[in-house]
Amino acid sequence: MTSIEVGPPEADGGLSKQMAPLGRTYRETASITQEENTIQDFEVEEQDEPVISIVTKKGVTNIKWDVVDFDPLDIKKVWGGEVVNDSWHETGELPKVEMSVKLTPKVGKPFIFPRCLVSAVLVYNVTRTDIARIRVTARKLKPEKAGVPSLIWGDFPA
Hints:
Strands 1, 2, 3, 6, 9, 10, 11 and 12 form an eight-stranded antiparallel sheet that branches. This protein has a two-stranded antiparallel ribbon with strand order 4-5. Strands 7-8 form a two-stranded antiparallel sheet. 5% of the residues lie in helices and 42% in strands. The protein has one domain (3-34, 60-153). By secondary structure, the protein is mostly beta strands.
């Protein structure tokens, strides 16, 4: 992987044009996972197989990665709060953070998610062999702008 970039979706609900990394990605923590779709089977007593099966819910897609060497402004992007004199201060409010996410592998085309719900947690085993990280989870959502897909594999025209 060469980079994971994030940025606020455009005012019209489209893909962010201001994307940048939150920090460097901790080795072997980045992943894209998609859950199985939910399928409803309709069955009858007279046979063992379903009469019909339908997909009732699309599987959730999450992008996860751990960020190291973050700064107070990076923390504010994922946790809200405020930056005072180069220090981050937490607030009591739970922020709703939406971002566009672009994961670019070393080989192949980028994976672009125009709209994601982002959450983050602190991960730190305070030992000599660990480093403080922010684990970011971005859940794919349907973009608000018409004509913009939820997932793009490759480049998306501006």
